[in-house]
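Troubleshooting: if your tokenizer reports a length mismatch, compare your output against this known-good record of 257 residues.
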Amino acid sequence: MRRIKLTVAYDGTNYCGWQVQPNGITVEEVLNRALSALTGTKVNVIGASRTDSGVHARGNVAVFDTDSPIPPDRISYAVNQKLPDDIVVVKSEEVPKDWHPRYQNSVKTYEYHILNAKMPDPTRRYTTYFVSYHLDLEQMRKAAGYLVGEHDFASFCNIHTDVEDTVRTIYELTVEKSGEDLTIRVRGNGFLYNMVRIIAGTLLQVGRGFYTPEDVRGILETKDRESAGVTAPPHGLMLMRIEYEKDLDKSEGDGVV
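Known-good structure output:
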């Protein structure tokens, strides 16, 4: 029996998130079905990040165990023939049998994509959040600075979560604009339920002048979800990559932090 690690990209528009659930089709369900058909045995993958309905990914990670004789690096090519066009396994590789995608030291990078223009673009309606109003980028960047570091992010967590420990570390939080494209990029050791979307919604309200950057520092200190901004819509969010400890060690020589 071998354990295979998959790096998975998907357009989450047509799915009720990653995790299998009774109220609709999910990415995990489709992946299980395709891998079961490929290997001839029932497969249940274990995913690293349970993205919500409508959220996209370029680098989610999952593992499954198999006796299939298919070489590990060829599984991606084989299973992609059985997957719909909006789900792609971009890489497959063998890992130790006890390797678990959620119990390894890792850093996750998310991006929230905003189309800041006078008119919406119908071809990007499922991958960007359309915002027509003017945004003060410098104020947004200043506010973002207060969120970098280790903090209790209870104010930036959905109230329905059952997580007891709401302390997380954000290593990097940037606000970048190129033309009409605005990207909020956040890199951290883990994220609470809806945390990135609440951060994005709060920074947008700073950009509109509803909050000052100093207000965001106060919001963080209150540990009260009601004090933070709205939760930005899911379709602007994308899980870019998950870097595990071994990969992080390799990147240190390249000046990556």
